[in-house]
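The aim of this short unit is practical: by the end, you should be able to scan a pair of folded records and say something sensible about each. We start with the first protein, listed as its amino acid sequence and then its structure tokens.
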Amino acid sequence: CKLVLVGSSPLPASESADTANLTSYAEIKAALLKQHAGAKPAVVEAAFKRLLKDREIRANLAAIHTAGGTVEYRAVDVRDSAAFGALIDELNAKGGIAGVIHGAGVIEDKLLRDKTPESFDRVFGTKVDSALTLARKLDPAKVQFFSLFASITSRYGNRGQSDYAAANEVLSKLACDLDRRWPGRVVSVAWGPWAEVGMVADLEKHLVARGLKLIEPGVGANFAVDEVIFGAKGEPEVVVAGG
């Protein structure tokens, strides 16, 4: 298959020789401290997270190639409806889009009394604005599946995530609407937290301590595929949780 991956991060260049062969977090951070001598800890931490993210992008692209797929990476801010819409128009003109997985999202957890309107807009808009652009621009006659990755937070709530819960609930209700109008499979999957990957990876110990069971990546991936292949019309909202 041919995949077009859309992300906010630029396509990473090759990694510096200073860190390329390092595997432990301690070794990587030590090397970055040398690279950013005199910098504040926050700067080094940001460089460390950027390095890990770039490694993940390169590894995923390589894995797709190894599996025999064709992949193109495009750096686009999906909140920019003009830029994102132009990419969709370009792909439509090249023969159309057969399927879409919408996994965009950011979290900036705070209690509502401490939340700024700008932060709320970033969290809400990253999911909702991009999904609405897709709904406007995709050709329903060609799209065989449209899978929106939402969150179990939209069903049960979570402390500090009023913005995130609201955004995900919009995705779920958008799926209900499109499922009625589009011939292909449209589903919103309200995921519980995944282990190892995704936005909550940094919170894994905290979540486990609260008694939550996490979704193993292999299990979650199989669920995602099964919902596209075996899911039926009239079932646009699905909840998947660990355990």
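Turning to the second protein, read its sequence before its tokens, just as you did above.
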Amino acid sequence: DTTFNHPFATNDAVYDAHLLGDGKILVAGGLCQSFMANCTPFLFRLNTDGTRDMAYTVPLDRPGTADGFVRSIEPLTGGKFLIVGDFNIGTTRSQYGRINADGSIDPTLPPVFVSSNFAGRDFAIQPDGKMVFCTERTINGELYRLAHRINADGTPDPTFRVNFMPGGFCTSVETLANGKVLLAVNTFSFEPDEQPLRRLNSDGSLDATFQSPLPIGSYVTSLKVLPDSRILVSWGDSGSPRPTKRLSPDGDVE
């Protein structure tokens, strides 16, 4: 569509986009001077023709000399958005932030730098406003493996803890209306293979009633819970992608 004139240059990175009700588009990524280097994080609102809406500005800066970007956008109630990436809010480095409808930073969610492995990971928001992030984190001096949860005010929630897996790393997460959590996990080459798709109870313990059809040793690249509670799973094994599966809420292949 040649009438869509976006403002990005060849080396810029676009990681996520969200279509707004009026046809405008929120676009997240990094403005990069060279291929994936010297990147300044951005969250722009584009008009319907792709041009930048200059009335909407989000005050994000590069985190010192490191490359910055916004990786994901998730809509919240009241026209707000949660963003995840690696950026400075003011002079403080952070890996998530809450944005008001006008693009200003919501100060009720304090900026936090979790770890160098956090910024590109998935996250999901629960119906009660709590947020589950697909990466480990040290809370109260203890390591919370695979994933952690924060309250709506940004404070860590120590009541959610994954403790049934010895290794691996989280690749995708989805929250369910009943408070349970779908968690996708991959393992490192030096670790025993694990089941890559699990359903957790609200405290992070294993929900043994969910039977995943994916073979042990395969991997999940993304999850999507549909409005009817069925699950789309993108997955692969032996380094090769496989056809997307649609699962029932209890894990049966449809």
